[in-house]
Amino acid sequence: MVVSTEYKQAFKGKPSFPASTKVYQEGSSPSIRVPFRQIALNPTTGRFGQEDNAPLSIYDTSGAYSDETATLGLRQGLPALRRDWIMARGGVEEYARQGIVTPEMEFVGIREGIDPEYVRQEVARGRAIIPANINHPESEPMIIGRNFLVKVNANIGNSAITSSIEEEVEKMLWATTWGADTVMDLSTGRDIHTTREWILRNSPVPIGTVPIYQALEKVGDNPEELTWELYRDTLIEPAEQGVDYFTIHAGVLLRYVPLTANRLTGIVSRGGSIMAGWCLAHHQENFLYTHFGEICEIMRAYDVSFSLGDGLRPGCIADANDEAQFSELKTLGELTQFAWEQDVQVMIEGPGHVPMHKIKENVDLQMEVCHEAPFYTLGPLVTDIAPAYDHITSGIGAAMVGMFGTAMLCYVTPKEQPGSAQSGGRENRRHNLQDRGSCRRRCQGASDGPTVGRRSVQGTVRVPVGRPIQPGAGSGNRPRLPRRDIAGPGGQGGSLLLDVRPQVLCDEDHPGRSGIRSAA
């Protein structure tokens, strides 16, 4: 496997991390060595001369690749750090509820500067998870929970026409180098299995996937052809490889789909649109919901954690906190309790478009109905009129949602949804984030106009997200890779957005049919 010269040069240690060294803190046994990056600080100049400062040790996610003493090869992968721990015990949550502190919990406690017994208590209560598949012994244990450091996820993935296995592994390495706590592989192109295998064998952080993407690829990108049997086999495959958490859209129920008909942007979650399309095509309940017990059995067998997907999340701030979003959230709360009864760890995915004054409501309701399970949010973006600056608007939302109790954030790039966004609202970028005291009155007024630039058209459409967009005048931002790294039309090469109006209107027996506003 070949990686770029730039990456090789950067990973000599000091060139990438000046004035710092990699250090380890040992636990109760020699096998527990927790990595930190120790930064040398300059002396402080005071009234009586210079005073030396002790080095600062910080959280490190780069794995053995930033250790100058390590001899590694990408084709050999990382050492199996947790192999002996795994062979000696069962699932993390199962042991936590039995009052047993596992090596993973001790590792996390040292890493977070917290008593390992407190780590065990939080995992046992379901307020935190340690995603650690038994088949991913290379990963360094980490914890996701609101009483711990806020974590950040980075997304990578190939498409039908872009990227190679080497490039995806290098993306993962760069992400962990610069601090990604977890990485999601959202590949939709060729060689998904092989690409994922190389990523796992070289990843020091937990890896997540969305199994429905690979299942859809197996049926020629036709959601109607999906079956539970196909999905079950697809779920087992990455679990056996070592994927640590799965995004599963089990809360998209048939009766909730019509609730999105009056939205400006319909259903923007790719997984949510796939399952909504299947439910409408077959007029049956979501098979991820009806077979949730069997899914839990698979997850428990491999110690895989749930990331319960928000398939009905809002695609613009005008749709935020609507009935569809909160109905799904309540179902996710029910599924969370069921998964806990099966000793499976759970975190809940949260929305990506929420105005500032509604962020706290989102977090508070999630904690209430999902029983304080960790909250994992994309952003959220607090305005819709800055399509080339989503990394800024989401940064504002991320700071707020983190303050209110979110456990993990998903990074957002400058062009999160450029395929469905236009730059025509640029002249409208006044003080739109808070609007000086009138935010609550006007948040669904002035911002709703530019939102239309993000909405999907009638029917199932393919929105290419790879073409460049034009940043605002004077901006230093340049077009970058989209969040899901998908480009071009055809096959799996575009992001799937679903506006459910036509399907709902055509289904005369569907509950909620009457009173649906036309899409005109």
Automatic annotation (TrEMBL):
Region of interest (Disordered), residue spans: 416-520
According to the UniProt entry, its GO molecular function terms are: 4 iron, 4 sulfur cluster binding; lyase activity; metal ion binding
Q: Under the cellular component aspect of Gene Ontology, which terms does the record hold?
A: cytosol
Tell me the cofactors it needs. Answer: [4Fe-4S] cluster
Composition bias (Basic and acidic residues) maps to 426-438
What keywords appear on the UniProt entry? 4Fe-4S, Iron, Iron-sulfur, Lyase, Metal-binding, S-adenosyl-L-methionine, Zinc
Q: What are the ThiC-associated domain coordinates in residue numbering?
A: 17-93
Q: Biological process GO terms, please?
A: thiamine biosynthetic process
Which InterPro entries does the record cross-reference, listed alphabetically? ThiC-associated_dom, ThiC/Bza_core_dom, ThiC/BzaA/B
Q: Which Gene3D superfamilies match?
A: Radical SAM ThiC family, central domain
ATP-binding recorded as keyword: no
Q: Which NCBIfam families match?
A: PRK09284.1 (NF006763), PRK13352.1 (NF009895), thiC (TIGR00190)
Q: What is this protein called?
A: Phosphomethylpyrimidine synthase
